[in-house]
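Reference record:
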Amino acid sequence: MVCAANRLADNRQSAWQGVRLSHETEAAQSFTDERGIWTLHHDITRLHANLCMSHRVSALSTILRSPASILGIVLILFFSVETAIMLVLPYLVPDYFGETGRAVLDAVLLTMVCAPALWWVIIRPLRRIAIQEHLRSETIVANAGESIITFDRDGSILSCNRAGTDLFGFDSETLIGGTIRRIIPELPLQFEKLPCEQGLSGLRAGDERFPVQVSVSEYPAETQEVRIAIIRDLTATELNAQAKITLVRETEALRAQQMATLAQLATGVAHEIRNPLTSIKMLIQVNRRKFADEGLPTDDLELVEQEIRRMERSVNSLLDFARPEKSEFSTFAIEDVIRRTVQLIEGRCASQQVRLAVDSPGEPTWMVGDAAQIQQLLLNLALNSLDAMPRGGLLEISTAIIDASIEVTVSDSGAGIDPKVIDSIFTPFVTTKPNGVGLGLGICRRIAEGHGGTLRGTNRASGGAQFRLTLPITHGTASHNRNLDPNELSCKAC
């Protein structure tokens, strides 16, 4: 019995402890949940307060950026405070103080109330705005990709950003206080006009010189003259320019080598072909006469002779391209060359119903060169334009003085240059004509370059092709030009 009673008591005590432990656990969990909820509520409240404060500061900063808004706030504040003081003052000041005492007390109260209000409403936000703008400007300058250095009228460096220290290899402590000529020796300290840009040489820490572009402007300051120098490293730019020059030189050298090879090839081929062609042509002509005397048809022989003549023209063009004739330079007027060129193409223009428009200045424009070669160039360009307009159109020849050069433009209203060959129209044997050789434009460009000029070909936006010949001009009168026979100036290009 005693053992059973003891076991019953132990069971009751264990059950009670379990119930108590369960209650304590639930209470602890409840406390933890309440604490977590309170913490979350506190964080949300603080975040909301910060957002509201940020919005208020932002809104207030927007308002205070306007001078009219600041003046309006000051007037409203003073008016409100002064009205309140005037209403309350008779109840606070005894009558024996008099008007003078009331005025003094009114001024004291107005000052004591308005001064802190102005600080909290206007001055403090403005100060915060000024600090933020200053920090923003310093951050922008410090992290700018270009080197920015400020210096005074004596050349002493006042500030330098991170890009400046990286560019010249000095730390900011070494640069600030020193002279700017330590890093840019050629920079002048007196400027006739600001802002200005100059291309100078910079000096790195190891006495390494490199090209820079310096843009100097004046920074408005009340205490002293401060100038801002924005420095750009031109090393990569000059390397790219040098690489382009090297590429152009290599291209010209390759082109000269190709022309020399072509000249040797053309001379050999022309020698081997022209003599047999001459013999064949003579035999064809003799047989044509015999057939004609005997009453036999000669149409086939005429066709063969025409093809032989075309082959001879191609061979002659190849020889002209490979072995250009010697130039005879003299002073002549470009207008005379244009007039003779127009005389040679007027008949064909009329037969093709092509309208010819010539725009040339009244006074002669003198230049030094070979008039026959220039006329050959213009004639080739004009005939190419006529070939592009078999059913009529407009051919324009105009001149314009640009600095110390004259630009002669030959334009047509034809189909224009094929986009597939527009970049290689001056390359030998490149042509779009069925019977063309592809040497004419190459000869024209060589003539232009031999006279110190350029020749460019493009398509017009309104349709058709346009070639621009630019030649240097001189001042003087005509000297002994050799007589130009129009029959000698046949078109050697096509």
